[in-house]
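Dissemination and training. As part of the outreach component of the grant, students in the summer workshop were shown how a complex can be specified as a set of sequence lines and then modelled as a single object. The example used during the hands-on session is reproduced here so that future cohorts can follow it. Participants entered these lines:
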Amino acid sequence: MANVHLRKLHIALGGKDIIRDLDLQVDPGEFLVLLGPSGCGKSTLLHSIAGLVEAVEGSIEIGGRDMTDADPSERGIGMVFQSYALYPTMTVEANMSFGLRVAGTPKAEIRRRVARAAGMLQLDALLSRKPAQLSGGQRQRVAIGRALVRDARVFLFDEPLSNLDAKLRAELRRELKLLHQTLGSTMIYVTHDQVEAMTLASRIVVMEQGRIQQVGTPAEVYERPANRFVAGFLGAPAMAFIDGELDGAGRYRAGTLALDLATPGAGAVTLGLRPEHVAIRDDAPLRAEVTLVEPMGNHQVVWLRCGGHALSALVHDTRVFQPGQQVGLAIDATRVSLFDPRDGRRL
Amino acid sequence: MTPPIIDHSAHPAIPLAPVPVRQVAVRKRGRRLTVARIGIYAFLFTAALFFLLPLYVMIVTSLKPMEEIRAGGIFALPHAATLEPWRQAWSGVCTGAACEGIRGGFWNSVLITVPSTLITILVGAVNGYALSFWRARGANLLFGILLAGAFVPVQVMIYPLVRVMALAGIFGSLPAIVLVHVIFGMPVMTLLFRNYYAGVPQELFQAARIDGGGFWRIFLQVMLPMSLPVIVVAGIMQVTGVWNDYILGLVFAGRDHLPMTVELNNVIMTTTGTRQYNVNMAATILTALLPLALYFVSGRWFVRGIAAGAVKG
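and obtained this result:
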């Protein structure tokens, strides 16, 4: 268990700035998820913590020691890659023990550690197999085992579940969370999948274009997004944004859509509405037209048009809606978000 | 759940692995004998005849006694087939002053080919590995120079190389000819291995770095064991190249290590006495036997080697 402290980190790849002036503190035992769209610099950041990418400026501290210029093997990290990156000519056992053999660990100790990791990941029966003889899920377990065996102080995951199908992904996600609960190690996890981020993280770091947009617990990031980008990136179906005006008396108005928000201030604002903030009730005064219904099994997503704006609502019962049907909307005014339309910041 | 999007930002430098050419399934209808198909078969038959006829003449001639050859009819099958010309060619014919057949040349060629192949492949593999994964400063420039070297004709470099070798005191020896083959084989071998390693995910290398592997350990324990396919291809290319070489062997090998090709030339170019066509043919087939056998045994790999060198990179 160790903390990771990044200070004023600046990373450039091929002459292009990927990350500038980034500060981040990861607490010991934390499960930190770096979340963002493709090309936002989250993987580059992880690689620089691992020592695979050099920092132009700034410092990286792991477990209280400056590791900015240390070799990847000296940093006390274990890393799991998206493509598993198993050594194809080695058996599962040899894959897991490679790092220990390089370090010259005594044979008995290697056996003990491999057996322990194999036991935790249900790999005991597969130890003498080659990676080509394993399924995707098994391969990724071996890759995790390889990191476990090293007794790393910090575990780094680079989109480890992205190559797996949906069912396996959910299964391995739970296993990872369980593993974190058992080991209590510091884990840094890169993903573009918000479900993984929400379910695994103790804190989420949302990134875009090499900058940290928001750091917070999953609930904070989801309920109180710091800006329009974070609000739009998290949540499925996505938050609906409606440009409108505050009248100074606490009322919000956008065309025929009017809401009592009890918010002081006046001027142009953007309203952010999540589907679960919108309820369909016949007695509600606000009218909308159903445009599309997506049944999800345990709930349905109803897409609506209200005063020229597209909205979605989550419905948790079995009411039947038809496209073109007129319904009443109730909006939970206490949970909506308001953003500055110019810079997208939360108001 | 959002659909899984493959994030290329994670590894911007990975060159995509070569996409295999999709095989078009042969439909039943295509098997019918059309004019085009007859044309194709006619062409293939003519082409095969063009290459097989000389081979046929060689084999037939090498099995005939001289009287039959003098009687003419080069396409005729031998009346009294004999293996005597083959025995002569292997162990009795005169190669210049000595008359011990081209046996000596065969063993010289083996002596030259084995180290030339092993060392060149090893050097090429290390070069390709270093260029693909370690990315030293100026690596691309270095690779460019190495490739440019491959385009300079061998003949241009012979004289300077002779001078250098003479200065080093190894001219006309086994180490000299091996060194020359290593030098001339290196650019293509480097290209071959570099292209192969370019298809290996960078993450594999990174995982080995995190596991603490250094330059040589990653090369020997991770990369080399998974390079078997390309090693086979490189081996075929280098063995045939070195075995078939004439000019370098003639210039650099020295009198005691003349390769089989040079000895063959000595057999055929002998101006004294009558020309023994049957022995000449047998000696030629013997010399060509090793590369020929290699083509037959490993045709698939050989084509792959040519494709690897030509298409990629």
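Chain B has a mean pLDDT of 83. Students were then asked to discuss how this feature might be tested experimentally.
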